[in-house]
Task: structure prediction
Amino acid sequence: MQGTERKVLYAALILMLVFTVLLVYASMGLGITLPTCNDRVVPFNDEKVISKENNHFEVHYIARMWSFEPAELILPENAEVDFYVSAIDVDHGFLVPGTNLNLMGIPGTVNFAHHRFDRKGEYMVICHEYCGLNHHNMMGKIKVLASEEYTRKMQELTSSHLSAGAELIEDRQCSSCHTSDGTEGLGPTFKGLYGSHRTMADGTEVTVDEKYMIDSIRNPDKQIVKGFEPGSMPPPEVPLTDQEINEIISYIKSLK
Amino acid sequence: MFSDTDYKFQIEKKNRFVLAAMLVIPMLLLVLGVFEGMLQTLYRAGYIRSTSFLGIEYYQGLTLHGVINAIVFTTFFEVVFGFVIIAYYLRRPVQSRWLIVSFAVMLFGTLMAAFPMLTGKASVLYTFYPPLKASPLFYLGAAILIVGSWIAYFSWIPQYITWRKENSGKKTPLAVVGMLSAFTIWFACTLPVAYEVLVLLVPWSLGWTKSIDVVLARTLFWFFGHPLVYFWLLPTYVMFYVMLPKIAGGKLFSDGAGRIAFMSFLVLSIPVGLHHQFADPGINASFKWLHMILTFAVAIPSFMTAFTVAASMENAAIARGGSGLFGWWKYLPYFDKDRWLFSYLFCGLVLFFFGGITGIINASGNMNLTIHNTSWVPAHFHTTIAGPVFLSFLAMSLFLLCQFRGVSVPFPKMNLWTPWLWLLGVSIFSTGLSVSGILGEPRRTNLGLSYGNPGTDRYVASWHMWDVMGAIGGIIMFLSTVLFFINFFAALFAKSKQNPGEVQFPTSEAYHDEQIGWVRNFKPWVIVMVVAILIAYVPPLYQVVTGKQQKAVPYLPWNPLPENKK
Result:
């Protein structure tokens, strides 16, 4: 090797060494660590928000095709949060822009990261790994509120708890394809669905009423809306009871 | 580009027909591949707000773009380039029988994988992570394509050994060292992915096994996935070291630097795959740190290459009348029809400067948390694989086709503009995607239906303008490839003028022709390579295999319920 070249080689080595030292500092000094093996929590199928002392929280996130649970996480300012992420079907991502939260959700394992939310506001939770044809709609929210506002919000939520229908829509995975806020999913959105007019594949026009909704939930292929293929919507895995169907329909009716 | 001293080599008719077919068939697929690439930028900027365009679904198009551009086009090109380089520099005839066998096997595998991709049965992207499931034909086809390229590699080894015996004491031609390094890396790193495909994925996809270990599958994939980039890069380095200095009108600054670089890549290309899994659970962080440091080590031969290539260009510029510390830059043949390969290689080098820097950022574990799986990542690899690699592969494809057919470049002026247009397009595209990536925009996502659509509550205004920039760059890149395709297919049908099949490579002399004993033999380096792989991969694989993770059942991309519960 020629003289100048040797100098370049040493310069490159020193540069990479400096980078390494900086990264070690970021890890040890600033506490920005990489996800590692985690045996504290085994893979779970239930979302959980555990509020602990001193503004500490433990949140168990479910990532599934194509939603996060909890869909909306509400936290007080300066919350110290341990995030556990479990993907229950395929690979998912868990990215919160504006933070260092960036995890892969891998089926069969639990991923972990810690974050302190020292800034109020609304954060997005984005699935950044391709997880099937509706991947682009897989998003959750984290709302960080000032502490008085947070206390008020929590009281509100406990008094008027989410309707049973809304929970069923999550649990039975209707929300994977049908959104509740008017955005386009694989199926029609629930917002404004009740009372709307639909054109069937055979050209007839129907109004979405209770009977139509009951039929469509029980037997999705009985009446096909124009533009959809038979078989697009799988029937419920475990048949829904009459009570449950009524709860779902009341919830959809409320989405105007 | 040449001088009279450059050796001329006659390829017989049958061989050059097969070699030309191996360039032309993937080039036809590449037309679809780059078109789907441009569509991605239009979807992301919200100009296409739909799940599909012209009958191809978004994620199906993304799968086609990745598999065709990064696997099919590159592998076919490298096999052709390898056959010609080995024959030319070792002064041996092309081995027809092995050429035909490897071509047939590769083509068979490609068609087998193309069928499910085109019919929407394999929309799993080119990383094919389980438990999203594709048709078994997709996995098998990809494996067969790889095996076809092994056949080519195996046929070169005896030719190389015979040459060594007959030329003891002589240095192996640098181009041959480069191509053999590339294919040795390729062979070693395709073994784990072949295991993933044949032992884990195919039986699972056929329903013979119920569930799969996703962490293991991902680890085996990236065991292959990063060395793959050096398989792409090394033929480009062959062009940088062996041909670029001569084309520019100078000498290679240091022959020894080239040999050291190729041997370093042999050792350091493979034990780095975990840097793609920094955000994964199920793998101990200490193993991630080990791979991070090794990734930094593999940056060193690229730093050396940057220096040597720049020094060689300085040497050329001075020979052309340039002088001064920086003044010599003005004396290079940036727009010279007779030295058009220089324009392609130089534009690639410019992009690679940024690709190298962003690559070091990606490899930096905790910095990676900012950009992992964001659009920053495609911005990065469009300045590496779609930078020097793509440009040099296109240029060499055209260069070889013209020589196989005995024609000159049909539209030389247009050909000269092609790489500059590409440089402009990628610069705009990658700037847009880099910024939106830092802001948190995910890659591989049909943004037009969600984050890029002002009609939804998912719309993110701060990303949008950068996606518009991405689309402008994407359109320019596409136009550049159109110019290229016009030249390539015109060369295919042009009337032969010169002697068809006469191949001649511009081959640089060395300015410093060092005699370095310890880089003259592959054997010790291959042993070090194997040891490095064992050190880097046995502990994490042992941990993954004995880990407590549960296995996963298959899902199809369009159904949130498991496949067997339909």
